[in-house]
Amino acid sequence: MVRSLWTAATGMNAQQTNVDTIANNMSNVNTAGYKAQQAQFKSLLYQELQTETTTANGDPKPTASQVGLGVRTASLDGIFTQGAWLATEAANSYAIGGAGFFSYHNYNGEQVYTRNGDFTWAMGNAENELVLTTSDGNPILNTQGEEIRLQGDYIASRIIVQQDGSMAYPDEDGVPQPLGEATRIGLWQFQNPGGLERIGGTSFRETEASGAAINEAEDDRIERSEIVSGYLEGSNVNVATEMVNLIVAQRAYEINSRAITTTDSMMQTANSLKQ
After folding, report:
1. How far is 175 from 183, CA to CA, in rounded Å?
2. CA-to-CA distance for 148 and 140, rounded, in angstroms?
């Protein structure tokens, strides 16, 4: 009878993780570039109540006698479907059409990846130098994995980013002139995006499970993404789906709680039999 207490407790713990995951998704419904997560569960070990046996005629019984010992969280799977494009008046907002990721150097100098294209131009260390960065000030990388820096008397609001990530600047006649490959925004893909490690915000780190980052500019085997200026990719969280999942998780939590209460009542009844 005590077994049911611990089994129901594992169910409550698992559903608490499920509710936490759903709550995190819903709290990031307006976070640009956020990718939703979904909790997956697996059954724990089974305990054999009766060893394999035979009938009175010597024939083996068709079924075993085993009881499960509960559930645990198996994984939190990332959902990397395309989010909706949101029009913005910001001058340096970029959405990705396709499976690509932007990349930047974080404060440790580590190369990380994101779908959040909310960028800005910042002044660099050198005179008249502009550096393309994230909203947190982390430098964006070009197709060679180097920071994008412009040296010269450029006006940030006039810099044009084309669909392939290359940049141009209008001359005296207003005709856009390319700024070179060193200013082309890099895009990377992964064989298994679900294996990426989340490191806070909307950023991800490469892992063995995700496979090495594939540079779109250097690999002709993959379908290239495109960059769309004036838009941000919104969160791919579906509020209606998350609300349904939240109701299901809440009911599952209540059922497991009821199982504990029922077991407690049965134990109380058993203890009172001697009275």
Report:
1. 18
2. 6
Can you tell me the distance from the alpha carbon of 62 to that of 54, in angstroms, rounded to the nearest whole number? Answer: 9
Sheet holding 203-205, edge to edge: 102-105, 111-114, 203-205, 197-198
Would you give per-residue pLDDT tens digits along the chain (275 residues)? 578 888 888 999 999 999 999 999 999 999 999 999 999 998 887 777 666 666 666 666 666 677 778 888 898 999 999 999 999 988 889 999 999 999 999 888 889 999 999 999 998 888 888 899 998 889 999 999 999 999 888 888 889 999 989 999 998 888 888 998 889 999 999 999 999 999 887 999 999 999 999 999 988 888 999 999 999 999 999 999 999 999 999 999 999 999 988 888 888 888 787 66
Q: CA-CA distance, 254 to 108, in Å (whole number)?
A: 44
Identify which of 122, 95, 125, 123 has the alpha carbon closest to the alpha carbon of residue 185: 95
126-155: b or e for each residue (b if 16 or more CB lie within 10 Å)? eeeebbbbbeeebbbbbbeeebbbbeeebe
Cβ neighbours, 10 Å, residue 256? 22
Q: How far apart are the C-alpha atoms of 37 and 161, rounded to whole Å? A: 31
Q: How far apart are CA 165 and CA 155, in angstroms?
A: 18
Instruction: In whole angstroms, give the CA distance from residue 64 to residue 67.
Output: 10
Tokens of 133: 């960065």
Report whether 149 contacts 130 (CB < 8 A): yes
CB atoms within 10 A of CB 21: 20
Within 10 A of 245 (CB to CB), how many other CB atoms are there? Answer: 19
The answer to whether 44 and 70 are in contact (CB under 8 A) is yes
Q: Which two tokens stand for residue 82?
A: 């395309």
